[in-house]
Amino acid sequence: MELQDVLNERRSIRSYDADKKVTKEQLEIIINAAILAPSWKNLQTSRYYCILSDEMIKEFSDKCLPEFNQKNSEGAALVVTTFVKNCVGFDRLSGEPVNECANGWGYYDLGLQNENFVLKAKESGLDTLIMGIRDGEAIREFLNVPETEQVVSVIAVGYAAKDSHMPKRKNVSDITKFY
What is the DSSP letter of 27? Predict the structure, then answer.
C-alpha cells in the first residue's frame, strides 16, 4: 500500500469486529514501525503497554475508561502509551528544561511515534482509535506504570466492524501562512 493511500484511508474507528483478534506479533510489527519515528536526541522514551486477553481488556475498560470509550473500543486490543518524564527537553547534566516546552517534548515524541503506530496498523489491515479521555491514575495502578512515566493515551487496535467515511478536512490555505 502506498503511503498516500494509507493517509487517505486511516480513520478513527469506533466499532470493532470482536471475532477477529489482534496478535502479539501484529503489535510487535506496528511498534517496530513506531520506534522509527524521530525523538529528542534519540532518547526514545515512549513506552507501550499492550492488553490482548479478553479478560484483561474487559477489566481494564471497566476500571480505566469512561463508558463511551468502553463502547467505542469494544472488540479491540488496547495499547496504553506513555513516555519517561523529565528526560526529553531537559539538559542531561543539570536536569533543567532547555526551553519553555519542558515535558512537552515527551508528548511531542510520543505523538510522532503514535502517528507511525496508527499508520502502520492501517497498512497492516488494522484500524485504530486514539483515546485521550481515560483515568490515568487507574491505568497507572492497573498496569503498574512507574511514576517516572506519563500516561498519555489508550489506542484501540482491531478490525473495523463497518466502513467509516473521512470527515471534512481543512484546506492548506486555512491553516498555513507563507512568508
Answer: H
pLDDT tens digits for range 95-125:
999 999 999 999 999 999 999 999 999 999 9
**Going by C-beta distance under 8 Å and a sequence separation of 6 or more, which residues neighbour residue 35?**
44, 113, 116
Q: Does an H or E element contain 76, and which?
A: none
Question: What is the CB neighbour count within 10 angstroms for residue 61?
Answer: 22
pTM of the predicted model, to two decimals? 0.95
| Placement of cell 517534548 in the chain | 105
Minimal CA–CA distance to 157: which of 55, 27, 8, 59? 27
Cell of 113: 511515534
Name every residue whose Cβ is closer than 8 Å to that of residue 26 and which is 6 or more positions away in sequence.
Answer: 124, 126, 157
